[in-house]
Amino acid sequence: HRFCPRSVQTDTDASPSKSSTAVQLPADRYIATNRFKVKNAPAFEKRWCERKSRLAELDGFRFFTLMRRVDTKDEEEVDFNYVSCTVWEDKENFTAWRTGEAFKEAHGGGTLWGFVDMLISSSQTLEGPPKPAFYDGLIPISMETNSESIPETVGGWRKVEADGKTLIPAECYVATNRFKIAEGFGTQFEQRFASRDSILEELPGFRFFSLLRRDAPQGSKGGLHSGASDEGDFNYMTLTVWEDKAAFDNWRDTVKRAKESEGEGGGKKPVGPPQMFLEPPTPAFYEGKLVLATEQGA
After folding, report:
1. Which residues make Cβ contacts (< 8 Å) with residue 200, sequence separation at least 6?
2. What DSSP string describes 147-188?
3. I need a labelling partner for 63 at 20 to 30 A (CA). Which of 124, 159, 211, 266 fits?
4. What is the pTM of this model?
């Protein structure tokens, strides 16, 4: 099944024992992210434009974008305002990159001076160190990309002009919704997403969707097996990539009209068992930049 990412409807009698017979969904993608608190956005983007990388040429690579948070007010404090997001065919492909020469080339070149230069640049653009987060990509829905629409790369990376004073152009729009799911409810949460029908592929501007399950060691904050903690990260997230914000707004209006025609208007939200959701879902929206894509899609 492929679902439409709407509000998650839940049963009032849900319990860990009820979900114990459900099967955990297999991972069809692997998503690696790195989250940044940036204090000089134009300089940060320029650094990314000028980095040495051959990411697009690596085995198992599917999609990349550098995401800038856009749904916050100027003075609002957020945990991270930039996220790098890479979609891989599977975890083995990611691990091969992470332990290979291509990773060293993209992170200071594997030399002492390259590493020092990277540290100096980071201190000038970041507030604190980046924080990685990794996910299993579940029930992916991906649109093939016309070869003429794939951004040109040179040696596996984009050549985008950046002056360090102005932001580089946005090339896609990314919508996410983050969930804290309690211990024992993960498989049930996944199955509810998987059982829904999807209209995404029918809508203009849609590129990619996946339900992300946090890949973290057992017992760690945000880990699947331990469930999310009140102080920990989100352990599930939806990730939807659109051509632009107009395409996303069209999807949202389509879902709203469908709910109204089905008598679900009035702003009433489905009520789920309080023991499944440790807190309400938290949306976050981004402009995607420096897009790397493949013909088969993400």
Report:
1. 2, 4, 5, 141, 206, 209, 240, 251
2. GGGSPPEETTEE-----SSSPPPP-EEEEEEEEEE-TT-HHH
3. 124
4. 0.84
Question: CA–CA separation, 221 vs 239, rounded Å?
Answer: 20
Q: What is the DSSP letter of 9?
A: P
Only one residue has tokens 């790195």, namely 34
Q: Is 3 left (phi over 0), alpha (psi -120 to 50) or beta?
A: beta
Q: Which residue has the tokens 């102080």?
A: 231
Give the H or E element holding residue 290. Answer: strand 277-293
| pLDDT band with cut points at 50, 70 and 90 for residue 235 | very high
E strands, 37-88, are 61-69, 82-88
Give the tokens for residue 63. 């999609």
